[in-house]
């Protein structure tokens, strides 16, 4: 994976989410968002990871932003 490649980080995060490795997937979502803060898939991944990690209050605005960017 190329460092700073939002698409690659987002895809790898999605794979890790399938393996229920939400902490690592969250870190990769943050890598993608550092590169592109308006990446809807990375925002969606981040929101889902936050929710699965028991941080639902933090997840709601992130997921709302993802939906606003890509309804």
Write a concise keyword list for the protein shown above:
mainly alpha, 71 residues, globular, 76% helix
Q: Could you characterize the architecture of this molecule?
A:
The chain is mainly alpha-helical. The chain is 76% helix and 0% strand. The model has no long low-confidence stretch (mean pLDDT 94).
CATH topology: Serine Threonine Protein Phosphatase 5, Tetratricopeptide repeat
Strand content: under 5%
What's the Cα radius of gyration?
A: 11 Å
| Helicity, as a percent range | over 70%
Q: How does the major sheet shape up?
A: none
CATH homologous superfamily? Answer: Tetratricopeptide repeat domain
Count up the domains: 1
**Count of distinct strands:** 0
| Secondary-structure element order, N to C | HHHH
What's the arrangement of secondary structure elements?
Layout: H1 6-18, H2 22-35, H3 40-52, H4 56-69
Helix pairs in contact: 1-2, 1-3, 2-3, 3-4
Short description:
With 71 residues, the protein is an all-alpha fold. The chain has one domain (6-69): Serine Threonine Protein Phosphatase 5, Tetratricopeptide repeat (Alpha Horseshoe).
């Amino acid at each position: 994976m190329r460092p700073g490649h939002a698409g690659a980080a987002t895809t790898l995060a999605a794979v890790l989410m399938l393996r229920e490795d939400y902490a690592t997937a969250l870190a990769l979502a943050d890598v993608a968002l550092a590169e592109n803060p308006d990446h809807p898939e990375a925002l969606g991944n981040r929101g889902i990871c936050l929710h699965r990690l028991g941080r639902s209050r933090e997840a709601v605005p992130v997921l709302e932003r993802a939906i606003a960017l890509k309804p």
